[in-house]
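F.,

This is the one I mentioned.
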């Protein structure tokens, strides 16, 4: 069965490189300048096989849940990696996040994609892994490959998101939830809350990793995914 892999914001197939090599029958689906998760989910459903295993990282995890909202019968297994499910609890929260996301776009406008990525790397990679020059370079180069227009679209998609608690409660297929132990953007507590809402789910917390968990600790991520695929 094909494993469909969905990248996170400003990520691409490089995020899943180790998993692609390990599992072989994989398909990475990106999102271009689509600026809402509905349109992203429709692209996945248009390009994926009739039935498939689905794994999404960060923004891609949000898209995976929208795929589940639309066509759960097509997804044999679901993996949510370093992601979230919550919406905006109130207008003040929405405004605060809008300001944070506007600040990100401001940094991109001022420093360019590469300059932004060089600064952002420390926010998404565990502190101990920042000493790994190859890893840091891979993350920076991956982000720098994206145009500012892609960053703007994906930022808007994140801002417009809906709460997905209802989707989590409806998931019936074997589900893997992976968190980086040091992920400040998507903390372990959020993943525990997701695991509590999903029947037949397994939570794996990967030590020594932050938000880029599949790149930071590829062997541990592959091991968790191998067990999930064999479920």
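My design for it:
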């Amino acid at each position: 069965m094909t494993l469909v892999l969905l990248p996170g914001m400003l990520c691409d197939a490089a995020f899943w490189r180790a998993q692609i090599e390990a599992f072989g029958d994989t398909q990475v689906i990106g999102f271009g300048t689509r600026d809402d998760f509905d349109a992203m989910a429709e692209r996945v459903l248009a390009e994926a096989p009739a039935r498939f295993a689905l794994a999404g990282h960060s923004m891609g995890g949000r898209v995976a849940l929208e795929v589940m909202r639309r066509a759960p019968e097509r997804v044999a297994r679901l993996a949510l990696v370093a992601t979230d499910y919550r919406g905006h609890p109130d207008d003040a929260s929405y405004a605060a996040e809008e300001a944070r996301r506007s600040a990100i776009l401001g940094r991109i406008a001022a420093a360019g994609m590469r300059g932004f990525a060089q600064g952002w790397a420390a926010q998404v990679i565990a502190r101990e892994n920042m000493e790994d020059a190859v890893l840091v370079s891979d993350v920076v180069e991956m982000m720098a490959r994206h145009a500012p227009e892609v960053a703007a679209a994906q930022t808007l998609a994140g801002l417009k998101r809906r709460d997905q608690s209802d989707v989590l409660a409806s998931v019936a297929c074997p589900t893997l939830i992976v968190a980086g132990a040091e992920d400040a953007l998507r903390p372990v507590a959020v993943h525990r809350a997701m695991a509590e809402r999903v029947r037949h789910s397994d939570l794996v917390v990967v030590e020594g990793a932050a938000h880029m968990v599949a790149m930071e600790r590829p062997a541990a991520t592959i091991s968790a995914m191998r067990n999930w695929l064999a479920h």
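The chain is about 50% helix and 15% strand.

Talk soon.
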